[in-house]
Automatic annotation (TrEMBL):
This is Cytochrome P450. Signal peptide: none annotated. Belongs to the cytochrome P450 family. It comes from Streptomyces drozdowiczii. The lineage of its organism: Bacteria, Bacillati, Actinomycetota, Actinomycetes, Kitasatosporales. PANTHER family: CYTOCHROME P450 YJIB-RELATED, P450, PUTATIVE (EUROFUNG)-RELATED. Coiled coil: none annotated. InterPro entries: Cyt_P450_B (IPR002397), Cyt_P450_sf (IPR036396).
Length: 424
């Protein structure tokens, strides 16, 4: 059996050095075995799984590992910047067994109401409006002006939120993932917006996903509903932004795409699949805690200690991952959507949103190219995501006199959620 020496110091997975070269960090960690110690904040250590098979084993092993962080959390400073992401909340993400199944059913059933062709049309409509706001200028930042805003507008429609709260929702979600000092405030603000929304729909149901959550047979009370909706928005918005941003960057920089959005022969679909392998939007997460002292893939684990999975490292393992079922290849084997009971429940709508968002860019801003050299792009700090801070582009200005350029109009949720799904 191979024995591995731990690194002299846990490697820091936060700050500019990590953001500039995550794959270099994963290569260094692999030298120390399938799991290696890391720091995810100045005073917070974790074990990071970098091996594909170990990642799969952990994600599926609900007997050995729990998702409940409370024992670990008691050992962490209460103002730690990682707590808005890792700290316990009564949601699917932090629950096991029957509790998880109950929350997950409400989430799955609500996402199943989304009709793909209606979603595609709605994403295209919002995309054209967002592009219309900057198309006449010949330049724009595709993160701030497009990728960060588009998913939020879709969620605002799904849940029937007041469009005026949309900016607070997107700021709350992005602030949580940054693991910066104001992360706790960002989460509190998000909860505040959704709490008012849920109280309103309890009193006055409408045909939207908030009312559907409240009416679901799982019988969620107001707080449980607030927490699950907040989870869907926070688990959804930031990775959606990153998927659109990372795949668009890939198209703008990979020579097969010829340096402009419409120049190459490959499709948005292929660009998305490649970044799900190479630059997954959620890079390191799947926080798990051993229920008892144990040994896992040759490494001693203490009960309650924090173990994270590096989706990005497992995906980029070389030679390619070999699983129990033999060598896997093809897009479905990457871990960007996680695996096991907590895998992303929104893979299909998320792919559709990303694909449609990028197709609208390629058709409207077909000669768009990067406005700065790729090595001058900044990535947001933080251990959990792979997220561009900006994506500046230039293109031939469009005549937008006939196009909408003012406030983004929000569809009535009852136009987006099929009537039969909610009224029955
Ligand atoms: C419509 C957009 C999305 C929604 C509504 C959404 C929703 C969710 C929810 C509710 C969970 C928690 C599931 C549970 O604990 O049982 C989850 C988990 C997850 N989602 Fe998504 N998601 C979206 C987009 C994405 C995207 C674009 C990615 C990345 C490609 C992604 C990757 C993941 C991963 C990796 C997890 C596991 C989290 C962990 O590591 O603990 N999701 N998602």
């Amino acid at each position: 059996m191979t024995t591995y020496a731990p690194p002299p110091q846990p490697l820091a997975l936060f700050g500019p050095a990590f953001a500039a070269d995550p794959q270099g960090h994963y290569r260094a960690l692999r030298e120390h075995g399938p799991l290696a110690p890391v720091r995810i904040a100045p005073d917070v250590e974790a074990l990071l799984v970098t091996d594909y098979q170990a990642a799969i084993d952990l994600l599926r092993d609900t007997h050995t590992f729990s998702k409940d962080p409370r024992t670990w959390q008691a050992t962490i400073p209460p103002d730690s910047p990682v707590l808005p992401v890792l700290g316990h909340r009564p949601t699917a993400l932090f629950s096991d067994g029957a509790v998880h199944a109950r929350y997950r059913e409400a989430i799955n059933d609500s996402l199943a109401l989304i009709e793909p062709h209606i979603l595609r049309a709605e994403v295209a409509r919002v995309a054209r409006q967002l592009i219309g706001r900057f198309a006449a200028t010949g330049s724009g930042d595709l993160i701030a002006q497009y990728a960060r805003r588009l998913p939020m507008h879709i969620f605002v429609t799904w849940f029937g939120a007041d469009p005026k709260d949309g900016e607070r929702i997107v700021d709350g979600v992005a602030g949580m993932m940054n693991s910066a000092a104001d992360a706790a405030t960002a989460y509190a603000d998000l909860v505040d917006v959704v709490t008012r929304l849920v109280a309103d729909r309890r009193a006055r149901p409408r045909r939207d996903l908030t009312s559907y959550f409240l009416a679901h047979p799982a019988g969620l009370d107001n707080d449980e509903t607030v927490r699950q909706i907040t989870l869907v928005m926070s688990a959804g918005n930031d990775p959606m932004t990153n998927l659109i941003g990372n795949a668009t960057l890939h198209m703008l920089t990979d020579e097969r795409y010829a340096g402009s959005l419409h120049g190459g022969a490959m499709t948005a679909h292929e660009a998305i699949n490649e970044v799900l392998w190479r630059d997954p939007p959620i890079a390191n997460l799947a926080a798990h805690y051993p229920r008892h002292d144990t040994e896992f893939h040759g490494v001693r684990l203490r009960a309650g200690q924090l173990v994270l999975v590096s989706y990005a490292a497992a995906n980029s393992q070389s030679p390619p991952p070999v699983t129990d079922d033999g060598l896997r290849s093809g897009a479905s084997a990457h871990l960007a959507w996680s695996a096991g009971p907590h895998r992303c429940p929104a893979k299909q709508p998320a792919l559709l949103i990303a694909m449609t968002a990028i197709e609208q860019l390629t058709s409207l801003l077909c000669d768009a190219r990067l406005a700065v050299p790729p090595d001058e792009l900044l990535w947001r700090p933080g251990p959990f995501h792979r997220a561009l801070a900006h994506l500046p582009i230039r293109f031939t200005p469009l005549d937008t006199t006939a196009a909408p350029s003012g406030a983004i109009t929000v569809a009535d949720p009852s136009d987006v959620i099929p009537a039969a799904a909610i009224d029955s």
